[in-house]
Amino acid sequence: xxxxxxxxxxxxxxxxxxxxxxxxxxxxxxxxxxxxxxxxxxxxxxxxxxxxxxxxxxxxxxxxxxxxxxxxxxxxxxxxxxxxxxxxxxxxxxxxxxxxxx
Length: 102
What we know:
The protein is mostly helical. It folds into two domains: 1-55; 57-91, no CATH class. The chain has three helices and no strands. It is rod-shaped.
């Protein structure tokens, strides 16, 4: 009985690579979906907290952000201790596709 030819072994190896790439793409898609779900959940939770505080419009949220950035030194110190670094004066624009959407 004759063993596999080199061409047969090459085709098998190429097929395995193709299958591995497909598995990798599927895992990456599952991970992106998980990350999107977690981000959405976080945004909903934060939105609920903001609504509970009476911040119900984008304008009110922007006014709060401005107060944080331009607020008193005592408030800024509390924010840094409690929340972390102050938000940027002008948050960076989200680029298309960054969250998986076009």
